[in-house]
Protein: COX assembly mitochondrial protein
Organism: Mustela putorius furo
Amino acid sequence: MALDPAGQHLRHVEKDVLIPKIMREKARERCSEQVQDFTKCCKDSGILMVVKCRKENSALKECLTAHYNDPAFYEECKMEYLKEREEFRKTGIPTKKRLQKLPTS
């Protein structure tokens, strides 16, 4: 049975692992300000970061959770995944390798 490159059916692992991975990566990009604030606080606070960085940690969690619970964001990431999967099924080349520059002589 050949796979339809443009097929929309998602396997369990795609729904529960691969798409959420894309969501985490994109959410971290969209919450980059909160990530930077939390990282800076942790570096500045050292061992006391658990106590001193609660505000920054809460802001980061709030931002990430807002993205994780947004159905439109899930659909956006799902469509991105389906596009990458379709391209892989057509070419046989993973996105990461396709985006790397070809060596020049």
In short: Residues 71-91 form the longest helix (21 residues). DSSP finds six helices and no strands in the chain. The radius of gyration is 19 Å. The mean pLDDT is 87.
